[in-house]
Every structure is written in C-alpha cells, then in structure tokens.
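S.,

Sequence below, as promised.
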Amino acid sequence: MYWKNAFIYTFRKDPAEAEVISHKLMIRAGMIKKVASGIYSYLPLGLRVIRRIENIIREELNKRGAAELFMPVVVPAELWQESGRWNLYGPELLRFTDRKNNRFCLGPTHEEVVVDIARQAIRSYRDMPLCLYQIQDKFRDEIRPRFGLMRGREFIMKDAYSFHADESSLDEMYWKMYDAYTAIFKRSGLEFRSVEADSGAIGGDVTHEFHVLAESGEDTVVYCESCDYAANIEKAAGRRQLNENAGDIPEDAPQPTEVATPDKKTIEEVATFLNVKPSDTIKMLVYEVNGGEYLVAVCIRGDLELNESKLKNVLGAESVAIPDEESLSSLIDIPVGFLGAHDVDKKSIREIVADFSVSYMKDCVGGANKKDYHLIHVYPSRDLYIDRYADLAYVTENEECARCGNGKLKLRRGIEVGQIFKLGVKYSKPMNLTYLNDKGEKIPVIMGCYGIGLGRTAAAAIEQNHDKDGIIWPIEIAPYKVAILCLDTSNPEAVALSNKIHDQLEDKGVDVILDDRDDRPGVKFKDCDLIGFPIRVVIGEKGLKNRTVEVKKRTVPEPQKVAVDKAVSYILDSIKSLYKK
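The prediction came back faster than expected:
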C-alpha cells in the first residue's frame, strides 16, 4: 500500500474532548473520527486494526468448533418480552417504534435472537453441543459515553452462544472458550488477567472477565499475591465471617446515649465532631429493591464502602437503588444522615441487613433516627435490630485472601475486554428452547455466552503500549507491520529502491506501507512513530551512498544499518522476532 492511497491524515495536537491516551492517539493518528457522543467512524488505519483482531478471534473460535453467523441490529420487542428483559434492562436499551407502530430495540446483546434461531433447529440431544458466534455492531445508550472506544454507545462486539444438553457439556465448552480468550489476548500482545465476576444484566451463575491491566481502566481487579485467586472488585469476596463472639459484652458496658451532632450527616463529619475514627461508626443506607417493590436498610462499618452487586445477590433482587432524599423522606419519617438500626419502623422497611464488619464492632457510633443526633456506646449485638449478616463490603488493599487465607489482596486498574458466562436456562426456559432427551422428555437447553469488545481491545492495546511519541502496536494487530520511508521522492534511485523493497515484502505476504509523500523527513518520522508501525525502514541519500537502508523496531531506540541486498531478509527476521515476544 502507498501512503497517498491509504487515506491517512494525522494531527499534532491532542483533541480537547479526549481524556485517556488511547482516545487521544487514535484521533491524532487518523484511526477514528467522532460522529456523535459515543459514536465513531473507523478510518482505514483503525479499521485495519479491527480486522486484525477479528481474524485472530475467527481463527481461535473456528479452531474450537464455533460457527459464524450474522444477526440483525434491529430486534423486535416481542423477543425481549419473551425473555422478560424488555422492562428490566433499563435505559441503556434504545427502544423505538416503526411506522406501523411496532416496537423494536437496537440490540445491545443477542441472546433473544440466537435463542429464536436455535429453537427452530434444535430438536434432540443429538443436535448439541452447538456454538454460534457473530462479529457485529451493538448499541447501548450509555448515559456517559467517554474515553473514545473504551465506553461508546455504538461498538463492535464478538458475541458467541453455546447450547448444551447437560452441565458437563457446558462446562467443557466454557473452559474451551476460556482457553480461546487466553489465546486471543496473548496473540493481541496484551498483558491481561482473567477474574471471577458478577454476571450483571446478562445473568447466569458462573462468569469470568478478561481485563487488560492499565491505570486508565474503569474497573478494579483484585488478586491474591500468594494464590491464583483473582476477581472483579464487584465480585471479590471478603474473608470476614459472622463474629460468633459478638454477644460477649462487658457487664459494665455503658448504655446507648444520644449526643447532639448538629448538621453532621456524613461519616467524616460525625467522626471528626465526636473525635472518633470512621471505623468506629456505623453507616446505614436505605435501598429501594426492584424499582420500589420494597425497602431494605443496610448497615456497614463507616470506613468501608457498600458493594451494591453483593447486596443485589444477597437479596436475590433484579435491582437496588438509593432513593433521592426527597423520595426517601416521603417513604420513611427519619432524617437522612441520622439513620440508625436501633429503632426502625418495620412497616416501611422490610429487612435490615448488615455487613459482617458490623458484627465485630463494640462501643461505636450510629444514627439516632432523630435530626441532629447520633448514639454513642452502641454494641450492635445488644442495641441494633439486624435481621441477617452477609458479605456486603468492597474488599480493600492488603486484606487477607478469602481463598487461601495466607496472601494479601492487591488491587489494580483494569479494562474489561471480554467476558464469558454460564447462562444455564435463563433464556431457554422462558423462551421455550427445549430438546428431547433419550427418554423422550422435553428439557430446557443449557446455554453459555461469550463476548469480546473489539474496539475496546484495540484501545486497551494502546493504553498498554505507547510512549511520548505515539502508539507502539503489538505486531499481530498493527495496521501495517512495516513502514518504508522514502526521504527524497525527487531522487529516482531512492524511489526505485523503496518500490522494490515494498514489492518484495508484499510478495512475501507482509503488510507494508510506503510513505511516498513529497514531504519533509521530520513529518514522516513523526507520523510513523505516532501511528506506531512495528518496523520502520528508511531510505535516504546517505544510505544510498553506502548501499544501506536503516531498519528500526518501534520498541528499540537505535536503528540498524543493513546492506540493501540483505534488507528484505533482515526485515522478515525482525518481524519473526517480534512475534516470538
């Protein structure tokens, strides 16, 4: 490919709206262009990266027996109503009505559509296992799209779905896909970690996320320094259990006492005012469950943060949310900021749940259920009305590992690029996807689901691989593996040699681009580093005198002088060496 034909244009300055390095560099390198908030065009260079990732995915999935298909972006409401998700998915589901007054959505994921396909084809256990996948656009109406391709509204996703007659077959496919994902992200040149995760809106019982480790990541990855335990922080289990000695209270322990705390609502304000540590306070929060079906109160140690995913799972709820202050005031007659679990009207609150941390607390501070007052000398086992205890807190750095009990937990930022799920019968049962077993009985098909975000994978690769000059693409997903820079396009000898090396590399199957622009050498060098081609070949007047070309790997500071007649073989060897890494 010649630069003049490749539709490449670059920018020297960072775009004002870009916050993370991948967003800045992809725009500056002419890989993407913003169309609307969270919606981007892929320009030729960016699309070539996406196609590279697509090819890796296809190779690894086809190798494991998956078959590719293509499903529509527009999905009728009836399918989502069958599964029960139409009213549960939330505002991220973009719904619309056509001219005939039929309701549709733009698919954010395709479980319903693929189940509708499968129930026309699967009749008996002999038709399974079956795995289908597609690489297709998705749309989620994110409230705050940001970071370029990292959190967009329209994005390219590989989604795969498997169908099984029993759990053992699903388990085999699940770990087959786990291995495929490991291979895909390794081949893409990424440093990543697979972690246990919460299934969220997709549902299911068992799931792993694959995170590229980068400080710009929106997620937090928790891992043990001593064993192989790793989890998304939403899922990470704490080591605390219920304190069996919580009822051992000294006979002379003081009784709860009201103290005035005027306008002191937050944990920090109360702790400072009463001269205690935040860890000596109890925070109580009230949640609406399933969109206002009922209320629960949750108690947690003041210095810890409540994990709403854990709360949702403990309650077996579809959703949990804190009402705004005005709504809460109309639901319970207790001023926000002074809530406590010692005397609660159970007519308005169905249940009081507490984190295990509360069971270890003694002589602490809690809300008095009275404006501008808190209680001191609270002993939870004696003074609070707790219906049950559970693990509800986010884990913290250096906390003991719940799995091995020896190591300390460490926290790192991560970018989620893929996730695999064991769905079970979450979709097949309500949508009547069944098969006949060997006894002639109708049994719900067991399913798995497996997704990868392609744009996010490309952006994550940049987050991990860049320097002050630009992108450093891993060799297998680079838009071009080799860039040839002809520094003097007015010199027939330089042009001829550039064309010759370009054509020889193309004949060898190498993706190569020749910068044939009539532009200054400095511009060509800067653009080459900005875009991040793995190997740069420079042909200039000085080299021609010595019958040499200059070959430089993007990851190596100094170029190498190579004889013209050995240039192609040297470049091929350099490409191979990058694959070995």
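The chain has 14 helices and 31 strands.

Coffee later?
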